[in-house]
């Protein structure tokens, strides 16, 4: 990155000497803003840092940055299943004990990846594994070990609930990708809410 920046700023100097310098020069995305102060030219494109997400392990965010994006839904139904009952298409997950399975109205048409699968969500401040195949419009959770889960309970796919947090970086690790892809593939049919909080 330093060599690229040196070539770019060298070109800008040559253009300026010839009276051709562009009115606006920029070379800094989030990572460059955090790691290369010299890249802060006339403007910058902070991108992922605006969401409070680190662009890479080599460019961590300052400690006062916080995630600005979260992804939530709610429990649509809860069913009791006996041991041996399969869940979802193909019966790839089978209850090994009497289980409580919650359904959430989020599926791969919303950006919840099937393979490799999104692993967990937060319900009542605790982690609940996604079980069975993720469907187009729904996913199922094993909430057997989370007492009192009922229809309407908030579910967090990305963000904080109680004392636990599922970050976009954690989800990216499950999916074998980067946080950019995780947040960019939350599809348009997922409702967006913007909250303005100044602290």
From TrEMBL:
Keywords: Isomerase, Pyridoxal phosphate. One of its GO terms (molecular function) is pyridoxal phosphate binding. Residues 68-195 form the Alanine racemase C-terminal domain. Its cofactor is pyridoxal 5'-phosphate. One of its GO terms (biological process) is peptidoglycan biosynthetic process. The keyword Heme does not apply. One of its GO terms (cellular component) is cytosol. The keyword Isomerase applies. It comes from the Bacteria. NCBIfam families: alr. This is Alanine racemase. It comes from Kouleothrix aurantiaca.
